[in-house]
Design goal:
The chain is mainly alpha-helical. It has one domain. It is globular and about 70 Å long.
Length: 166
C-alpha cells in the first residue's frame, strides 16, 4: 500500500504584481465616496479579489486576467488618452469607467460588467461598507413582502393520467 504524502500547504495568487495596483485603482474609482474607502481598505480589498480569483479554474483565471489587461489599456480605447489606467487621475479613472459602461464596443462593455459584478459583490460583502450604504442586518422588512405558503392539510388526489384512462 503506497504511503500518501500530506497535502501541501500553499497559497495560490491569481493577480500578478502588475495587476494589484490596477485592481486597487479600479476599486478606488468605482467605490469612492466622501468617507472612503480608506487606503488600508483598498489594500485589503485587493487581497480579497486575489483570493476570490485564485479559486477559479485555470481557463477562467486566464480570461479574467486578459480582461484586466484590457482595463489597463482602456483609456486608449475609450478616452483616446495614451496612458494606462493606473497613471490617470482619479477623475479621469471615473470618466474612463463611465465610458467603458456606455461603449459601443461590446467586448469593452462585457469586460466592465464582469469586473463591476465581481468587485461589487466582494466590496459590499464587507460589514463596514454595507453599513455605509444604510443597510442594517436587523431589518426584517423582506419577510413581510410575501406571505409564507402553508402546507395543505391533505393533498388533493392527483388527476388521472392518460394511461390510466385507457
Amino acid at each position: 500500500m503506497p504511503v500518501l504524502a500530506p497535502p501541501r500547504d500553499f497559497e495560490r495568487h491569481a493577480l500578478r504584481p502588475r495587476h494589484r495596483p490596477l485592481v486597487r485603482a479600479v476599486a478606488g474609482a468605482m467605490f469612492a465616496h466622501e468617507d472612503g474607502p480608506s487606503p488600508a481598505r483598498l489594500d485589503a480589498f485587493v487581497d480579497e479579489v486575489d483570493a476570490f480569483l485564485s479559486f477559479a479554474s485555470t481557463t477562467l483565471r486566464f480570461g479574467l486576467l486578459v480582461m484586466l489587461e484590457l482595463v489597463r489599456f482602456a483609456p486608449v480605447l475609450v478616452a483616446y488618452r495614451f496612458a494606462t489606467f493606473v497613471r490617470l487621475s482619479h477623475h479621469d479613472r471615473v470618466r474612463v469607467l463611465e465610458r467603458m459602461e456606455r461603449s459601443r464596443l461590446t467586448p469593452v462593455v462585457l469586460v466592465f460588467a464582469a469586473y463591476k459584478t465581481i468587485l461589487s459583490l466582494l466590496f459590499f460583502e464587507h460589514p463596514d461598507e454595507i453599513a455605509a450604504t444604510g443597510y442594517s442586518p436587523a431589518r426584517r422588512r423582506h419577510l413581510r413582502a410575501l406571505p409564507l405558503a402553508r402546507p395543505a392539510a391533505t393533498s388533493p388526489a392527483a388527476p388521472p393520467t392518460a394511461e390510466a384512462a385507457e
